[in-house]
Design brief:
The structure is a homodimer of 293-residue chains. By secondary structure, chain A is an alpha/beta fold. Chain A has helices spanning 10-20, 60-76, 105-116, 130-135, 146-152, 170-180, 223-234, 253-258, 281-291, and strands at residues 2-5, 23-26, 28-31, 37-40, 49-53, 81-86, 120-124, 139-143, 160-164, 183-191, 198-202, 211-219, 239-247, 264-268, 276-278. Chain A folds into two domains: 2-144 and 279-291, Rossmann fold (3-Layer(aba) Sandwich); 147-269, 3-Layer(aba) Sandwich (Rossmann fold), CATH 3.40.50. Chain A is built from nine helices and 15 strands. In chain A, the strands form three sheets. The first copy, chain A, has a seven-stranded mixed β-sheet with strand order 11-10-9-12-13-14-15, with helices on both faces. The first copy, chain A, has a six-stranded parallel β-sheet with strand order 2-1-5-6-7-8, sandwiched between helices. In chain A, strand 1 (2-5), helix 1 (10-20) and strand 2 (23-26) form a beta-alpha-beta unit. Chain A is globular and about 65 Å long. The relative contact order of chain A is 0.13. At the A-B interface, strand 4, helix 2 and helix 3 of A face strand 4, helix 2 and helix 3 of B.
Chain lengths: 293, 293
Amino acid sequence: MIVIAGPASNGIGFRLSKILKAEYTRAVTKFFPDGETYVKIEGEIEGRDAVIVQSLYPPQDRHYLQLLFMIDTVRDLGAKSIVAVVPYMAYARQDKRFLPGEAISIKTILKGIEHAGAEYLITVDIHNEKSLEEWLNIKYVNLSAAPILAKYFERRMRNPLILAPDRGALNRAREAADVLNCEYDFLEKYRDRNTGEVTIKPKKLKVKGKDVLIIDDVISTGGTVVLATKELLRLNADKVYIACTHPLFAGNSYEKVLSSGVEEIVATDTIPSPVSYVSVAPLIAEYLKNILK
Amino acid sequence: MIVIAGPASNGIGFRLSKILKAEYTRAVTKFFPDGETYVKIEGEIEGRDAVIVQSLYPPQDRHYLQLLFMIDTVRDLGAKSIVAVVPYMAYARQDKRFLPGEAISIKTILKGIEHAGAEYLITVDIHNEKSLEEWLNIKYVNLSAAPILAKYFERRMRNPLILAPDRGALNRAREAADVLNCEYDFLEKYRDRNTGEVTIKPKKLKVKGKDVLIIDDVISTGGTVVLATKELLRLNADKVYIACTHPLFAGNSYEKVLSSGVEEIVATDTIPSPVSYVSVAPLIAEYLKNILK
């Protein structure tokens, strides 16, 4: 097996290779004066299982083309099999035609990875797992980072309580609660009938005196977690922690979340950020061990 | 027929539709806070011949993904046929594995257009026409802009002489010379055996007292045409003109070429630039008339 790290995910690629005791090579990339990416794969590829790691955080389009160039080249070089590891999958939120004529971007993105020559796709907390089922004709898996994020807080929280940001994410909260052996709930938006004001509260559980962990798949503008943190502190939660898989933090949203009163924010390394302390490499390595043995 | 103009080529798309008396629609694009492109195609697509126009100048990767999203969507919407018009084809210079392990980027790019669902590809002066033959399984044509560029100079030059920047581009010079009914030649690099200095001179023809037109497919850094212009003026050419299909002008190269002593630079509108005065729309329309009648 050889692990090929794309420019977006050198760290994860290197860690993967160490855990798997596999050979590691960094895809060489540079830019031409007009902005085109140049890609070169060094190392012996022929006849080997190739694992290509490239996350699709911004600039998404550039990172995506680098991924396609890598897959296509590794196929040309005669790899025995090609696993594409895409820790953060871009365009995953445009997963249906909400309005007539809209592009289903994630379909185009996934199809491109398949047609370039990948035979297996590994993602982490993709926005909608059904996209993989619906559009891919190759094997795939979507791994949950909730347990490893919860693990990070194992000795950091007292009286823990896990909250999902909405009902749809309750499964993620349950996975985290299993690790921390605590209760979990989800946040629901309430609109005050008199003032029209929107608040976000836990559906059932009381938070008073608790250390609350909000666990989310992606923080983009941070609107929901900021609102939730403030409300939880108003309800006398002891401390509020935020864990997310993909710290996208568009614009100045990182500063916004930081100043919401949160005790600590932690994210995985699918996207570089000031808080990407939890690596998804062990999670992915564990899965790769099973499929490539 | 319906002409769908991508954000990179609204002008060419609009002109195409006027010449062809075809319906025109602009692909609606916007950007999400994290930088992802949103694409929506308005208008009646089902059962119609769709012509999608999108040039791949910088930011190439973004323009390329917009193209794929448009093709995929138009196919979903039930177009009868899909012609992709890509006036400037990005990544065309990475057309072979110059070093082991290098990506053949143009292959990946062309295959992506095919797999997204295009059934015909129209390019203008692609770097190497053989790439189309080698990598595409759909129909294609590569149109030459040399005649329309030459036409622009028809009443502007006295004693004209056409020069190709190198031997490989002699065909383009011949096409232009046919229009202007004049002689043509190519430029060759000479290295002085004593000083090591490189000069660029016409292979055979004398330039003294002539109006010389250098015709090139792409001006990227502008190095060759600057060197050539200076040498041609030293050899007492009367005036030096430069025509190119794709005015890429990386960095400050436009200013560099302008200050070389050249009389006028003219380019086509495959790439926006201060001198993109010659539209490729009539050229493309003429071809579309034949294949879509």
